[in-house]
């Protein structure tokens, strides 16, 4: 059985949407390098913001 790690010893990233730090989770073990958002809500908000920005003609794109 693997040794327990303290939460302070786990790798940390900053969320791409809200900027808050979040720690490694076991369910992200295989794709930790690809995880960008701290929660499903931040992931949804990022998609919504991106689509609003693309739909807005005043954005200049």
From TrEMBL:
Query: What name appears for this protein in its UniProt entry?
Result: DUF2256 domain-containing protein
Q: Which Pfam families match?
A: DUF2256 (PF10013)
């Amino acid at each position: 059985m693997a040794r327990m790690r303290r939460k302070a010893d786990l790798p940390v990233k900053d969320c791409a949407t809200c900027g808050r730090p979040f720690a490694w989770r076991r369910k992200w073990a295989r794709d930790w390098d690809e995880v960008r958002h701290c929660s499903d809500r931040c992931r949804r908000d990022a998609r919504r913001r991106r689509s609003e920005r693309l739909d807005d003609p005043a954005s200049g794109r």
